[in-house]
Design goal:
The protein has 201 residues and is of the alpha/beta class. Helices cover 38% and strands 16% of the residues. The longest helix is centred in the first third of the chain and has 11 residues, at 56-66.
Length: 201
C-alpha cells in the first residue's frame, strides 16, 4: 500500500511482469520427458494450457513439477537479458511488480527466487493457477504489462494497459494473438528497451 501511495504522488510509471517463461525458464517439460524417456515431447511441442495432447503419466509429472519448489524455484534460471532489463528499469525510476500464477506452496521459494535474481523488483503478487490476474492489474494501476500468456495479455489490453507479449518457438500457444491495438510482440525480454516504456509503443 505504501509503494502505491508513493507511486501516485510521484506519478511513477508502473510495469508488471509475469514470471514463468517471461523472466525465468524452468525447463519442466524437458525434464519430465527425460524422466519418462519420451523423445517426442519438449518445450517446442504445440500444446494447450492443460497439456491434453500429452500422455497421462507425463501430464501428471509436469503438474507435479509445477508445484515443486525444487523445479520452479531452485532450478529456475533467468531468461537471457532479464536481469539487465530489471536493473536498467529500476535505474530509470520505474516501479516493477511481478504477478505470477503459482500454487500457494511456492510463495516463499518464489519470493526468494525473485529476491535473488531480480532484487530491483518492488513487490511480488500471486494468483492461483486458474485465477485471472485482471483484478490485480486494476488494483496496482499498471501502465505496462509483459507476459507470454495470451489470455492475460487480452485482460491487460481490455483495461487499456500497453502490453508486450513474449512470443517465440517455446510459446506457440500464443501465436494466434500477434496483432492487437496497444500490443507489441517480442521474442524475448532481451528485445525490450527503456524507450519502449518511456514512449509507450
Amino acid at each position: 500500500m505504501y509503494i502505491q501511495i508513493i507511486n501516485l504522488i510521484m506519478k511513477t510509471k508502473i510495469i508488471g511482469f509475469d514470471l514463468d517463461d517471461t523472466l525465468v525458464k524452468t525447463d519442466i517439460i524437458r525434464l519430465a520427458s527425460e524422466k519418462f524417456g519420451y523423445t517426442k515431447y519438449s518445450d517446442l511441442t504445440k500444446r494447450d494450457w492443460r497439456f491434453t495432447n500429452f500422455p497421462e503419466d507425463l501430464r501428471k509429472e509436469i503438474f507435479r513439477m509445477y508445484a515443486s519448489p525444487k523445479y520452479m524455484s531452485y532450478l529456475a534460471n533467468p531468461i537471457d537479458g532479464a536481469r539487465e532489463l530489471m536493473k536498467e528499469l529500476k535505474k530509470q525510476g520505474f516501479t516493477i511488480y511481478i504477478i505470477t500464477a503459482r500454487v500457494s506452496r511456492l510463495k516463499r521459494s518464489s519470493k526468494n527466487l525473485v529476491k535473488k535474481l531480480f532484487p530491483e523488483v518492488d513487490s511480488v503478487y500471486f494468483v492461483d493457477i486458474l485465477e485471472t490476474k485482471k483484478e490485480l492489474f486494476k488494483k496496482l494501476k499498471l501502465d505496462f504489462w509483459v507476459d507470454d500468456a495470451p489470455h492475460e495479455i487480452k485482460n491487460a489490453l481490455t483495461l487499456g494497459i500497453k502490453s508486450f507479449m513474449i512470443s517465440n518457438k517455446n510459446t506457440n500457444y500464443n501465436w494466434a494473438m500477434k496483432k492487437a491495438p496497444g500490443l507489441k510482440v517480442v521474442k524475448s525480454v532481451k528485445e525490450l528497451k527503456i524507450k519502449d516504456f518511456k514512449n509507450g509503443q
